[in-house]
Amino acid sequence: MSRRLAACSLALALALSAACGESTEPPIIGAVQGTVTVEGTGLDGVSVALGGAANASATTSGGGNYSFPNLEAGSYTVTISGFPQDVSFAQTSGSTTVATQGRAQVIDFGGDYIRTASVNGTVSVNDMGIAGVTVSLAGTESGSGTTGDDGTFNISNLRMGSYTVTISGYEEPRYVFDPTSQQVSPGLGQAVTADFTGMIGEIPFTVRIENMSELKAFPFSGMLATPLGEMMDDMAPGMSYGFNFDATPGQMISFAAGLMGSEGMFFGPDGGGIALWNDDGTQVTGDVTDQVMLWQMGDNVTAAMGDDVPEVSDVIMVTLESIGPASFHLNILNVTEEVRGEQTMMLTQGVAVVHSTPDPLFTAGMPDRGAGLAALARRGMAGDLAAALGAHTGITGVLGPGPYASHTGSGVLFMPGTPASAGLKVYAETGDPTMLAGEVMPDDGIHQAGAFLVPVGGMAPGPLHPGQAYEFTVAGRPGDMLTFATGFAQANDLFYAPGPDGIALFPDGARPFSGDVTDMLTLWDAGTELNERPGSGLNQVLRQAMPDMGTPEMEMVDERKVCFVYPDITNVMDFIKVTITAN
Ligand SMILES: [Ca+2]
After folding, report:
1. What residues are paired with 66 via a beta bridge?
2. Looking at the predicted structure, is the pLDDT value of residue 457 above 70?
3. DSSP letter (8 states) at residue 513
């Protein structure tokens, strides 16, 4: 080694001394080489042209490398070309000089990708943008974004290339997207759109059943205007006022009828009314005149006193008659006799009212209430008082717990024209939905089923009184129907429910329904128990002593039969309000 190095040194020394004379020395041989990289990664396949003292070409390989060996001394320029269009180099050529034997001059080229492509789009269901959805890009590069409040996304600063756009992180099973990914290929500087349109998969619906009934103070009231069988008002000797009414145990009847020409006197019982039921549960019948007094309308309403006050029993006889299990006839007969030449005792117009609490018309010893009793007592005009009572008279609607289901089939709870199931019979007659809910089996047609039992704010299962509401939540999918029932507890076997097909939760097949569905309800008769007058039948849900009381009906489920006049329940809207809210 050392000897060879010495020989070379000697040759070099000879060459240098010879340079001063003729140039017969061997030429200097060097090289030009380098690497083409993009963002630090070697880029193969780039054309590299050498110019200057010699011309040559090469292609990068093996990690972006090129090399021009065996170059004689001189100036050289290296120029690159043929690189991808989305790569940008600050300089595409460089110069160097080969001047040293054996040395390689290095010219490197470092570039960057051009990121001017973008992918945008909207993630929506039923034209409503879905916020917060993750949008992922995979392919040429990876990337991600999130949809905004309007459901749109925009992922920019992307290389041109091929991408798979995938959405994830949306609420399931609320929304369904198929497919969840798609391919896009944005070019340089190009914005491409990838929209995702899904549909509702399954959402909860809140159903609210409100008792819209007014709390009625009186089950019955009326005006006594024309004596039985007469054409004219006012009750002369031998004439009588008579009327039929229903009353349940615990209720009593009061009336007021003026004594004509008396300057404010009127007949009627005291605030406790006339008892209608004995302690043993039988109806009071017969002469009840001893429960009637003569009253004086003064500054206060007081018992009439004085020499000119007649004995009640000398003027009228009041009798009660039973005309049904909870039905009565009251008769007020003018028992005075017409005596020629004397003033005839006559009764004016009056009112009658069935009540459960005392003092429906006045409170003894207290001023008149201004509702019309003064006009009755002083002028014999009962119209105002009858109207005032009428405003507080009627059936207080009481609703009951019930089953519910979201479903696709028909006749989940009943089918009109066919007999009620065992569960529907029990439900309609007692208000207990347990057995009926148990019959709603989770077969293919039932999506979700259950029963609502406890009023909102309540602690225990129970009926729904005026102002109260039941609420339940049921899952619904497009195509699902809603069926439920709520008992009409003032009857024997009646219940409110939609028809056998139920109520469409997605009426247009895609959009969930929210709104009032009260007018889609019907008052149904289970056909299992004979109907009594609503609100007073002793075998009705609110009053029966045992669940199975009442006369079997052996009929089909049908819309409420007109066995009774239902003056206060013809309009569903007066008793119930049902709203559906899609959540
Ligand atoms: Ca019935």
Report:
1. 34
2. yes
3. P
